[in-house]
Amino acid sequence: MTSLGLGQIFVFFGILLALTKPLGTFMYRVFEGQRTFLHPIFRPLERLIYRLSGIREDEEQSWIRYSASMISLSLFSFLFVYLLQRLQGYLPLNPMHFSTPQAPQSATPMTPDLAFNTAISFMTNTNWQSYSPDTTMSYLTQMAALTVQNFVSAAVGIAVAVAMIRGFARHTAETIGNFWVDVTRCTLYVLIPICLVATLLLVGEGCIQNFDGPVTATTLEGTSQVIEQGPLASQEAMKMLGTNGGGYFNANSAHPYENPTPRANLLEMLLLLSLGASLTYVFGKMVRDTRQGWALFAAMSALFFVGVFACYWAEQRGNPMLTSSGIQNVYTGSQPGGNMEGKEVRFGIAQTSLFATVTTDASCGAVNGMHDSFTPIGGLVPLFNIETDEVIFGGVGAGLYSMLLYAVVAVFIGGLMVGRTPEYVGKKIEQKEVKMAIIAILATSLCILGFTALSSVMPFAQNSYWNAPGSAAANTNNAAAHGLSEILYTYSSAAGNNGSAFAGINANTPWYNLTIGLDMLVGRFLFIIPALAIAGSLAAKKLIPTTSGTLPTHGLLFVILLFATVVIVGALTYFPVLSLGPIVEHFQMLDGKLF
User: Fold this and answer.
1) Could you tell me if 70 and 179 are in contact, meaning their C-beta atoms sit under 8 angstroms apart?
2) What is the rounded CA–CA span in Å between residue 258 and residue 505?
3) Which DSSP state fits 135?
4) Residue 49, in any domain of the structure
């Protein structure tokens, strides 16, 4: 690792830390219904939305009604996106004639299974893409379906996190807020304003925003290249802020239209983690003890630094097989050294390692380098980040409520270990809360491991990982350990609602489209519903005064306990399959037998 690379990582984290309190304070005021500097602009529109939608702003919901509202909006979102994709050939703003007989030969057909997968993906805030958007989706579909869902799915995640915070903050209450009010306020006061500013900044850096058709350019070699156009910057800002992921172009944030400069790269990474980090401060404000929020932030930060340093070390160290062949593999000031395969040369190893860690700490599929080309340990880091249930800042809302589920487990384990009362921020943690947390944690791991196992052995999964390179069946993903890692990463990314991929696997087949879709549903709703059930249970309880028998949850000891709970649960669950994938591949590389 280089001092310049480490400096870039610390500068990024310093800016993120500086944003956490002011943005968290603003979000706290929004969800508490207090006046903000944006109220003169958006309050009339907020009232109009309530009036037209029949929403009673002062009417709150139990956790069951809150969950039902969330599911109904999600179901409508799924149907809307599915139908718009299937009908895009008959609708306007389709200059490339996708889904019509005039579609170019390079276009990807919008089949029912692909439309199902994509609709589930954007409804669950995953944005997994089994296709290249610039050769599949019309401009109308990109804007009215995908970009809109970037807002809606992100607002749903934040609303659930706020509802769970209310469960900890309230006592002897039967309600945890109003889902429709929370989603409306999140969209109007948080997501739209930040996205407007971010879009203008991205356009200023070189992101495109137009409705033009593709243009043909002549390259330096004298050949012709077709360059797609479209409304990119507005989607780029929201896909980052909402930790939605995906990309307008298949190259994602390595494409100069999506990520034109180092300043844009920094902005995109800050958008990825800013809301997730700030929600920890919202938690502290709402429970009337900001130390509790900073404790969560500290645990997330520790997990973040372990991941980014491990990934950066592995990528800067490079492949020893190349070193033994006499290839320069050490940083010299004029040469980056390390493993530059699959990395955008404008950003280099440090920025690519940081981006890979950030995007998998959050539930975001945006990448500025191909994870498939990372070293085994470098690829293990983003994979394990996802398999921790995205608690390291995480997706908007999802990171906080996932970490709070782990906090429930950590408090319970800590109480058993030291003989103290299992309490958290004044609420007694009992059997129901622990059961709900365990259900959520086990549901995702069951889907990840189950679908990975099936896809590795089922003939109809097509081209499983053991097929030899060059064989007729080996046109989907790599062989041996790396091929298993690709399949494992696919289902981990889907269940974690992340959306990034190792990029070495062709997932646009009926088997993968359907199973990945089911994986995304489980990863989203079997985390949200238990979280809301815990919120409802806790809100009804009385506050318990702190005594000498209470386990403190705002200090270093609790941070260490929470950190260890996340790592140990992840290690015990996934170590066997990781041993067959990136870990064994690492030792093969050291032995010079990587294939």
Assistant:
1) yes
2) 23
3) G
4) yes
**Which residue in this structure is represented by tokens 């495109």?**
208
Query: Is 475 inside any structural domain?
Result: no
- Angstrom distance (rounded) from CA 286 to CA 50: 25
Q: Answer for the pair 372, 502: CB distance below 8 angstroms, yes or no.
A: yes
- Separation of alpha carbons 488 and 468, rounded Å: 19
pLDDT digits (tens, 9 = 90+) for 525-578: 998 999 999 999 999 998 888 777 777 888 899 999 999 999 888 778 888 899
CA distance 526 to 513: 20
Q: Are strands 215-218 and 427-428 parallel, antiparallel or unpaired?
A: unpaired
Confidence class for position 197, pLDDT limits 50, 70, 90: very high
DSSP for 224-236, please give it: EEEE---B-HHHH
- Per the structure block, which two tokens stand in for 94? 């389709």
* Residue 111 counted as domain residue: yes
Q: Which domain holds residue 189?
A: 26-276
Q: How far apart are CA 581 and CA 232, in angstroms?
A: 36
Please give the distance of CA 429 from its chain centroid, rounded to a whole number. Answer: 28
Number of domains in the chain: 1
Tokens 């003939």 sit on residue = 459
DSSP string, 470-516: TSTT-SSS--HHHHHHHHHHHHHHHHTT-----S-S---SHHHHHHH
Contacts of 218 (CB under 8 A, 6+ apart): 224, 225
Report if residue 563 sits inside a domain. no
Percent of the chain exceeding pLDDT 90 equals 46
Q: Please report, as a single letter, which amino acid is at residue 173.
A: A
Are 357 and 306 within 8 A, CB to CB? no
Residues 6 or more apart whose Cβ sits within 8 Å of residue 129: 118, 121, 246, 247, 365, 499
Angle, in degrees to the nearest 10, between helices 290-317 and 556-578: 40
Give the position of tokens 């360059």: 227
pTM of the predicted model as reported, rounded to 2 decimal places: 0.90
Tens-place pLDDT, residues 135-172: 888 888 888 888 888 899 999 999 999 999 999 999 99
